[in-house]
Design brief:
Blueprint (H helix, E strand, L loop, with lengths): L1 H13 L12 H6 L1 H7 L1 E2 L37 H12 L11 E3 L2 H12 L12 E4 L3 E2 L4 E2 L17 E10 L2 E2 L10 E2 L2 E4 L4 E7 L3 E5 L3 E3 L2 E5 L5 E7 L2 E6 L5 H5 L6 E5 L2 E5 L3 E2 L4 E6 L3 E5 L5 E5 L2 E3 L4 E2 L1
Parallel strand pairs: 1-4, 2-3, 3-6, 4-6, 5-7, 6-10, 8-12, 9-13, 10-14, 11-15, 12-16, 13-17, 14-19, 15-20, 16-21, 17-22, 18-23
Length: 321
């Protein structure tokens, strides 16, 4: 069994197309009906709202409280999942209750942008924990605007990652354009989901079209930039059609070297950039993924490296069972 799974992982990382079964919405089906579906998709005008400063969360604190309209939205490190669901319901106004049987419904592009903004904002950690369920109810047309990503990877800031369940329900994303993060000193990521954490479930969603052009971004994937510890979670029934183009020309500061950051390396995958931190990959938690987008990379000097995979860029420190 271990030998077979090792072969499976090797094929996954070098193949430009990996399909274990027919996706919930296949790339071929999307292409056949693209114009009609894209016309009906929820359009995003590129607006990224500011996180409400009244919704305050001090990371690691047991007594952080909201102010203003959210004065009763107390949240601390030990707060229950039920309390966090109540906070999200009150502060963001999503339909549903965040449970597996009544997930929060993302009914427009604006709803998904709100999810991104509050996932990426360190002061709103209630939305980042496990046990929060979201369901997409429409296709999205991002219209080429720079997408910030759901989850922000900046050197293992754990409370800026998505750890809940995101059920795409067979919907797709059109005209994805990932925001380029150009930094010499901080490892970063780019993807429709920038950073996915332990226990997260991402399923039944596809990137139907787009062109991703990023520079000096450590981890890049059409759907997910970084999965940090997939244990107890899963990525399934997802595809990417967006073309990905990356450039690596980083110059490295002495501080970056001291921190151990390997910033002359980029890891790029069609669907997922990297699965890291001792994740265990099995055919149960990592399946039915495909990529048909082109991946190209440019490096400026010989001491830079770009690792690429059709579906998965790399999986350091992970194992198969």
């Amino acid at each position: 069994m271990k030998k077979l799974l090792s072969i499976f992982l090797a094929v996954l990382m070098v193949s430009s197309m990996f399909i274990m079964a027919i996706p919930a919405v296949s790339a071929e089906q999307t292409q056949q009906t693209k114009s009609a579906r894209e016309e009906a998709a929820s359009k995003w005008d590129g607006t990224i709202p500011e996180a409400n400063p009244d919704w305050v969360y001090a990371y690691g604190s047991s007594n952080a409280t909201g102010t203003g309209d959210f004065a009763d939205s107390a949240y601390g490190s030990g707060t229950s999942v039920a309390k966090r669901r109540e906070m999200i319901k009150k502060c963001l106004g999503f339909d549903g209750h965040g449970t597996s049987t009544s997930p929060f419904l993302l009914k427009s592009a604006e709803d998904v942008v709100l999810l991104a903004v509050y996932t990426n904002n360190q002061t709103s950690g209630a939305i980042n924990g496990s046990g929060i369920n979201f369901k997409l109810t429409v296709d999205l047309d991002l219209q080429g605007h720079e997408w910030p990503g759901i989850g922000l990877y900046e050197g293992f800031v754990d409370n800026q990652c998505f750890k809940g369940t995101f059920d795409g329900d067979g919907h797709v994303i059109y005209d994805l354009n990932l925001m380029s993060r150009d930094s010499s000193d901080v490892m970063q990521s780019a993807g429709f989901f920038g950073f996915v954490g332990m226990g997260a479930v991402i399923k039944d969603i596809g990137i139907a079209s787009g062109t991703v052009n990023v520079k000096n971004t450590t981890y890049v994937g059409g759907l997910i930039g970084v999965v940090d510890n997939l244990n107890n979670g899963s990525i399934s029934n997802c595809f990417n059609n967006a073309d990905i183009n990356v450039i690596c020309d980083n110059t490295i500061s002495s501080d970056a070297y001291a921190s151990g950051a390997n910033l002359r390396t980029m890891i790029v995958g069609g669907v997922i950039g990297t699965v890291r931190n001792r994740s265990t990959l099995t055919v149960q938690n990592f399946n039915n993924l495909s990529n048909s987008g082109n991946i190209t990379a440019t490096k400026i000097s010989a001491d830079q490296a770009v690792t690429m995979g059709g579906v998965l860029g790399d999986s350091p420190y992970s194992k198969t069972t």
